[in-house]
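Protocol step 4 of 5: obtain the predicted structure for the target chain.
Materials: sequence only (see below). No template structures provided, no constraints applied. The aim of this step is simply to have a reference model before the mutagenesis design in step 5. Sequence pasted as it appears in the construct record:
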Amino acid sequence: MGEIGHNTALKERAYRIRRNALRMGAVQGQGYIAQALGIADVLAVSYFHALNYRPGEPEWEERDRFLLSIGHYAIALYAALIEAGILPEDEIDTYGCDDSRLPMSGMAAYTPGMEVTGGSLGHGLPIAIGICLGLKRKGSKAFCYTLFSDGELDEGSTWEAAMSAGSHGLDNLIGIVDVNNMQADGPSRGVMNFEPLAPKFEAFGWFVQRVDGNDMAALVAAFDAARAHEGRTPRIVICDTRMAKGVPFLEARERNHFLRVEADEWQSALDVLDAGRPA
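Step 4 output (structure tokens):
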């Protein structure tokens, strides 16, 4: 398959991830759907281009790890795990229900493919440091991809981990930052201005790229460059994303951390997403 065809296939995967997320949100009438729609392209490239894993064997020792630091993005990761065949599609209707393997905030003890329990923000990157050190000591060639949010840049633990990764030369670590400029207390840069972001990671010894997180070709190129980069340095892809991407009437809504979707709007969102399905 050529580059154009591959990117088209990835766009189809992203569409299906978005659709899975909307279907789960409709079950409970709520969920962090704006973030899920925004990060879907990054997840499509992660699971259908970059990661080395076995869908039927989620604890395969040589797998690349994908850590979700942002526990409330679980709806997005479940959508990707379902599309990847790690979780069965028929569990969509159990989202957030009693005894479900799909709790609203991700928990590693419940869900195959969920590597860590996120939600206490600022912990994902520090956990990744330990995992990467462990993989190194075992002689593993696996990579550890770690998705965290721009809001987590407020946390000192994130920057301690960033410094540690550079100090230890963790070239098996690929960080991914979702920069959607929104967190619980308001626009992220207004809460704690983290810009200029790329030079900060560069100063800690990281190989840094910044891309449009909803541009499939740019994401593929960045993920390839991150994995292929030579030198004992951690790598990071800073992704500027659009919340609610793919559903224009939700994209246009006033942006906030927890986007309200009315009961009669879930099906409308699915219809709009389906109408814009990649050709």
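Step 4 remarks: The CA atoms of residues 122 and 156 lie 8 Å apart. The chain has a mean pLDDT of 95.
Proceed to step 5.
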